[in-house]
Design a protein that fits this description.
The protein is an all-alpha fold. It is built from 7 helices and no strands. It starts with a helix and ends in a 21-residue tail after the last helix. The protein is elongated. Helices cover 57% and strands 0% of the residues.
């Protein structure tokens, strides 16, 4: 399709601009792809020497309809689906979940008892009344 477009521009640029070199063709196509309206395209091409005739306006309209547009920040459906999935995952991570108990388990009371070693670890060391520091228990190395 690009070669058809280039051939179309080449034929008409020879008619309207008097030359059909590669630079002219590329400029006309680039101008058409970056233009937002046919009027802006016509003003760009008229500054290059396009005459203000009905045939020239028809050329500009046809060229504008054939050339693919440059799109800024248009997102495809895949991008939208991916962004929605990321948003849902983020919302799911931010939620706090608790444990649900069965009906029977809600009526039972479970006591947790610490072992004697756990009690010793949890025991607060006494402070030395003079220095205010906690006592350290030193273990001697066996020789």
């Amino acid at each position: 399709m690009a070669s058809d477009l280039q051939r179309y521009v080449s034929d008409n640029s020879l008619t309207y601009f008097g030359s059909s070199d590669r630079t002219t063709i590329d400029f006309v196509i680039a101008s058409a792809s970056s233009s937002k309206t046919t009027d802006s395209l016509f003003s760009k091409l008229s500054s290059m020497g396009l005459p203000n005739t009905a045939a020239a306006h028809d050329f500009v309209n046809e060229l504008y309809s054939r050339v693919p547009r440059k799109r800024k920040h248009k997102h495809s459906a895949e991008d939208a689906a991916r962004r929605q999935a990321e948003k849902d995952a983020k919302a799911l991570r931010s939620q706090k979940f608790g444990f649900l108990l069965d009906d029977e388990a809600q009526n039972d009371v479970v006591e947790v008892r610490k072992s004697s070693k756990a009690k010793e670890k949890g025991k607060e060391r006494e402070k030395d009344p003079i220095s205010g520091r906690k006592d350290r228990h030193m273990r001697k190395r066996g020789l």
